[in-house]
Amino acid sequence: MARLYANENFPQPAVEALRALGHDVLTTVEAGQAGLALSDPEVLAAATASGRVVLTFNRRHFIRLHLESSRHAGIIVCTFDVDFATLASRIDAAIRAVPVLEGHLLRVNRPG
Fold it and tell me: How much of the chain exceeds pLDDT 90, in percent?
């Protein structure tokens, strides 16, 4: 399963659902980085240094970072969904659909 880093805006219920699916998810709070106002490049650098794929709703900034350089452990950008279990299932399916996450950007969008 994937080693993920949930950005500060990512909801804890979705984190728990991803963990139930077997993913290793580290949150900003657990990493001791909550409330530090880290920039997006700093978040990506920290996740990459620990071999974790960034999981975020901040699509615009992280897509831009990916376009600037694909030297990262991976980025998953999502649209918000209040159905956290379904969101986690879509993320899980996207992860399973690619053989390697390193250097890739995955987009997980809410249908409709």
Answer: 87
Q: Whole-model pTM?
A: 0.95
The sheet that has 53-56: what strands, in order across it? 24-27, 3-6, 53-56, 75-78, 105-108
Phi, psi at 75, each rounded to 5°:
-135, 130
Between CA 48 and CA 104 the distance in angstroms is 12
Question: Sorting pLDDT into bands at 50, 70 and 90, what band is 26?
Answer: very high
Residues spanned by the domain of 65 = 3-108
Q: In this structure, what CATH number is given to the domain that contains residue 65?
A: 3.40.50
The HSE-up count of residue 109 (CA atoms within 13 Å, CB side) is 5
